[in-house]
Each structure stands twice: as structure tokens, then as C-alpha cells.
Amino acid sequence: MKTDVMVHCGNSPKMERVIDLTVALAAKDADSVKSIVREDFVWKTVGQEALISFEDLSQKLAKRPDVTEIKVENALSHGKGAMCEGTLNFEDGDVLSFCNVITFSSTAKDALVKEAHTYFIK
Q1: How far is residue 9 from each of residues 12, 84, 118, measured CA to CA in Å?
Q2: How confident is the model at residue 10 (pLDDT cuts 50, 70, 90)?
Q3: Could you identify which of 11, 75, 89, 103 might form a hypothetical disulfide with 84, taking C-beta atoms 3.0 to 4.6 angstroms apart as the criterion?
Q4: What radius of gyration, in Å, describes the C-alpha atoms of the chain?
Q5: pLDDT in tens, 30-63
Q6: How many CB atoms lie within 10 A of CB 36?
Q7: What does the pLDDT average to over 6-12?
Q8: CA of 122: how far to CAs of 40, 42, 58, 86, in Å?
Q9: pLDDT tens digits, 52-102
Q10: Taking the CB of residue 57, how many other CB atoms lie within 10 A of it?
Q11: What is the C-alpha separation between 9 and 55, in angstroms, rounded?
């Protein structure tokens, strides 16, 4: 998978973490995702009923379509919140814009992700 991440200061650990989480989700890398999130983590794709829990992560990621390229165009963090947005290119030629809205467990710079809401637009 080709990865194109915006240029940034590199001085925001939580912004780095939200970018790392977004790339790991796109790559379907459950081990990397699990190293960034808490065990009570939940992931919601907005507009879909089901929440994906920590326990179901590997299985659910494996069923998602393969991403050939991710472009991270913007990422921000402040306090317990963060966001990351960009585009995903798929093998079949589809392109989706996305935005991940993240809630960390605390404001600490090494806090793990507690919850993620992902928005997709075709």
C-alpha cells in the first residue's frame, strides 16, 4: 500500500498516533491497531449500525476491501480529541474521502485511543 502523509512538525505524539492508527486501519494491520488502542476500544463507521470492538478487530479488518493508496491530507489533536482526514484508493479504482475522529483515554501524550468514528464520502 502506498502511503502519502502530510508534512507536519513531528512534535505532537497524539497527532502521530492518529495518523498511525488511520494508516494501520487502511492497511488492515490489526497488530499495529491493537498497539495504539485500549482493550475497551470501539470503532464505528458512521452510517453503519455495528460497532467494531477490540476483540472483533482482526476479523472485521480482514473482510474490508484492500486499499492501494492512502493520502493523509490533514491531522489535528487537542486535549483528548484528534482527527485525521484524506483519501483512500482501492484496487477496483474507487476513491473514498475519509475523516477519523478519535477520542483518547486521557490528555497524556502517551494516551491510548478509546474510540474512533470514521466518516466516508464517495
Answers
A1: 8, 15, 24
A2: confident
A3: 75
A4: 13
A5: 999 999 999 999 999 999 878 999 999 999 999 9
A6: 18
A7: 80
A8: 30, 24, 25, 12
A9: 999 999 999 999 999 999 999 999 999 999 999 999 999 999 999 999 999
A10: 20
A11: 34
d(CA 37, CA 20): 11
CA distance 94 to 23: 18
Q: Which domains does the chain have, with CATH numbers?
A: 2-121 (3.10.450.50)
Transcribe 59-83 into DSSP letters.
HHHHHSPPEEEEEEEEEEEETTEEE
Query: How is 17-34 classified by DSSP, letter by letter?
Result: HHHHHHHHHHHT-HHHHH
In contact, 115 and 21? CB cutoff 8 Å: no
pTM of the model: 0.94
Provide CB contacts within 8 A for 59, sequence distance 6+.
Answer: none
